[in-house]
Amino acid sequence: KQEVTQIPAALSVPEGENLVLNCSFTDSAIYNLQWFRQDPGKGLTSLLLIQSSQREQTSGRLNASLDKSSGRSTLYIAASQPGDSATYLCAVSGETSGSRLTFGEGTQLTVNP
Amino acid sequence: EAGVVQSPRYKIIEKKQPVAFWCNPISGHNTLYWYRQNLGQGPELLIRYENEEAVDDSQLPKDRFSAERLKGVDSTLKIQPAELGDSAVYLCASSPGGVAYTDTQYFGPGTRLTVL
């Protein structure tokens, strides 16, 4: 059974700082990995999707990397802003579960002005 | 383009009462998902539809939960009777379908259920 772990559970940084969120998964037979953002009381917004054959994806100030063999992904946020404050969730879909996403518990990020 | 629409946004009920949630996916999306998200945790899939067919309902507690997606568009998730442990946010998501395993899923805002 796939398990996804995210570290740290919570992170507080000053505005402007570059930061890294970590995600690890136990079964490396994945199709893809996604990073989502969730604001309080709202649904999830997909930020980046990395196919299993890819090493990284970039969107604006966000860069996500994937090391499938070691079961790890990182989300790098450059020049953080207060508007980046949210919970960030990592999810993987794998060969044993089709397009079913297995989520981590998330990292709650606070960017202080 | 409208996103995934869910209603109601909030629901408070007494235990043993029935409750239903409604979802309207993004137009043209063939795949629809229902997730449950407990406080402080990531979402867990309850059921996935490909058009009208439920293709993955292995994690749906079938003794009290039921779902339907008539005409392959809107979907309803029902709980009867509700238990205290059902308090959670119920999220609906949709994706275009087509090429397997490459789709981004688009989530609705969710329905927050409180069972008293």
Rounded radius of gyration of chain B (Å) = 14 Å
Beta-strand segment tally of chain B: 11
SS content category of chain A: mainly beta
Number of strands of chain A: 11
Helix proportion of chain A: under 10%
Distance between the termini of chain A: 41 Å
Largest sheet of chain B: 7 strands, mixed
Query: Helical element count of chain A?
Result: 0
Q: Give the count of helical stretches of chain B.
A: 0
* Percentage of residues in strands of chain A: over 45%
N-to-C order of helices and strands of chain B: EEEEEEEEEEE
Shape of chain B: globular
Low-confidence stretches of chain A: none
Tell me the structural class of chain B: mainly beta
H and E order of chain A: EEEEEEEEEEE
Q: What gap, in angstroms, lies between the N and C termini of chain B? A: 37 Å
Strand content of chain B: over 45%
Q: So what's the oligomer here? A: heterodimer
Largest inter-chain interface?
A-B, 25 and 26 residues
Helix content of chain B: under 10%
